[in-house]
Amino acid sequence: MAYEALYTRGRPKTLSQLIGQEHISNALARAISGGRTSHAYLLVGTRGTGKTSTARLLSKAMNCDRVHEAQKSGRPLDKKEIPCNKCDSCKNFDSSPDNVEFDAASNRSVEDVTRLLSTAYLAPLRARVKTFIIDEVHMLSFEAVNSILKLIEEPPPNVAFFLATTEINKVPMTIRSRCQVLNFRLIPQQTIAPYLLTLARRLNVTLHEDAAKKIARLAEGSMRDALTYLDQCYAMADKEITLADVNETLGLISDENLDEIISAVKAKDRAAVSRAVTGAFRSGLAANSIAESLITRLRDIEFEMLSRDEKNFAELDKIIDALRKSTGEMYGSGIPDIILEMTLMKLAAPVQNFIAPPIAQNVSANTNLDVGQKIFYDVINYSGEKTMSLKSLADKAVVTNFADDTLTLCFKSDAVAAVFKDTHQNNFEQLAAQVAGREIKISVVIDKNLPPPFLNNMPEPERSNLVNAMKTFQATDAAKIK
Ligand SMILES: [Zn+2]
Predict the structure, then answer these.
(1) CA dihedral 288, 289, 293, 294 (to 10 degrees)
(2) Angle in degrees, CA 46, 5, 1, rounded to 5
């Protein structure tokens, strides 16, 4: 027997099986019991929340023999009996010529719609009620909408319309006002996960609870997506689906790997960050999906903290903000891996990495200048990981001013300044914008009397030793001591 996708098999057969939309199934059960169904429904909600399934259940129920018997005798119906799925009408529903389903996305024109709705004025062949289920109704052309509108305004007898849409704003008010609107909610993870576990038991598959939770989280409120993911894992696994199987099948980064990156960032351990990120890249994951997984993981950690009544989210929020910004930059950048790595490296940069240049002592203390120098050194620190060309800048230029987002770089040599302007300034400005989170302009000035800036980038204790040596020898040019 051919394998039937879970997403088809998992479809609700009665209103009682409509998962996560109890407000709708309860209201519909009351309406059907009381024989008060409408001739036009507008089903609104995100993809995979059960709109088409509900339209089918309603179509079936409107024609179900047992539902009709109950309506006549006044016996209240249970959601489990709507529809019965046993009577001839229910059994033949899938092949019924009286149920017409089409997708407005691929049948947009008035000709398509006229053709598909042409039988609306004819009496049903076998059914009690002829039903039309139109998906993505917001995609219809203006004329096509009008032809439907006419049918809804003056409906032929024994016809019912089910219009489904993911974008209610694009559905004309004239349609909305003439339909009974059913608003489908996103299905919570806490509802999806147990349903997946039940489904797996029915399939004789051991689905691990953490694996079910992971799928539920990924589905983002869509049962259809959840079932598709479970299907993919089911196809790969052998009677058992673990969290690792889910990660591997769906190409996801594991929570351990995510936690490794997060811990390294928090510990300001840049080597560990690099190792963890490289590990993630090596498993073939795209930078933006790693960044998105990190954001989701950080949010989960925040929720866990909240449940423990911890409220200090500042550090995690900072990481989330930086990652969110970097995902925006990744699209179309051509260097998403580098952007992600740089973002994480920057977050992990220890504050003491910043070496204040001696020239700062000659300039009056100024917070603006401090900010400018911080940007300058951040750019050099990050560029050093990727491109060697900017690294040497610390030996050649000094930040002398920072105002109105313009960083003034002072060079001792005209020639070096010219090379910087021609070949490095653009790159520097781009990196500075990433470091500062806003556009930074560079102004280049020359000062022949500038002390040798190479001291700036010299690590301690060499720098102190050299400065002391300069004092001892009363030297004005440290290069001579070298
Ligand atoms: Zn039936």
Answers:
(1) -30
(2) 160
Q: Could you tell me the distance, in angstroms and rounded to a whole number, from the CA of residue 62 to the centre of ligand 1? A: 9
- What would the two tokens of residue 402 be? 């920072």
Domain at 75, CATH number: 3.40.50.300
Domain-located, residue 478: no
Q: Which of 347, 368, 390 is the last residue of a domain?
A: 347
How far does the centroid of ligand 1 lie from the alpha carbon of residue 31, in Å? 17
Same-domain check for residues 153 and 79 = yes
The tokens describing 13, both together, are 């057969």
Residues 221 and 105 in one domain: no
Give residue 32 CA to ligand 1 midpoint distance, Å. 13
Cα 81 to ligand 1 centroid, rounded to whole Å = 8
Residues 303 and 413 in one domain: no
Question: Which structure tokens are listed for 467?
Answer: 């400065």
92 C-alpha vs ligand 1 centroid, how far in Å? 10
Report the separation in Å between the CA atom of 57 and the middle of ligand 1, taken as the mean of its atom positions. Answer: 10
Q: How far is the CA of 86 from the centre of ligand 1 (A)?
A: 5
- Distance, in Å, from the CA atom of 482 to the CA atom of 472, rounded to the nearest integer, reads 14
Cα 308 to middle of ligand 1, angstroms: 51
pTM of the model: 0.64
Compare 449 and 458 and report the one with higher pLDDT. 449
Average pLDDT, integer, range 273-281? 88
- Residue-wise pLDDT for 66-116, tens only, equals 999 999 998 999 999 999 999 999 999 999 999 999 999 888 888 888 888
Q: How does pLDDT run across 299-344, given as a tens digit for each residue?
A: 988 988 988 888 788 889 999 999 999 988 888 777 888 889 889 9
Residue 480 lies in a domain: no
Total domains, the chain:
4
Q: Is residue 66 assigned to a domain?
A: yes
Q: How much distance in Å is there from the Cα of 80 to the middle of ligand 1?
A: 11
**Parent domain of 120:** 6-183
Instruction: Please tell me the distance between residue 77's alpha carbon and the centre of ligand 1 in angstroms.
Output: 12
DSSP-derived secondary structure for 195-230: HHHHHHHHTT-EE-HHHHHHHHHHHTT-HHHHHHHH
Between the CA of 37 and the centroid of ligand 1 the distance, in Å, is: 16
- Cα of 60 from ligand 1 centre, angstroms: 7
CA of 75 to the centre of ligand 1 (A): 15
User: What confidence tens digit (pLDDT) does each residue in 218-231 have?
Assistant: 898 999 999 999 99
CA distance 29 to 27: 5
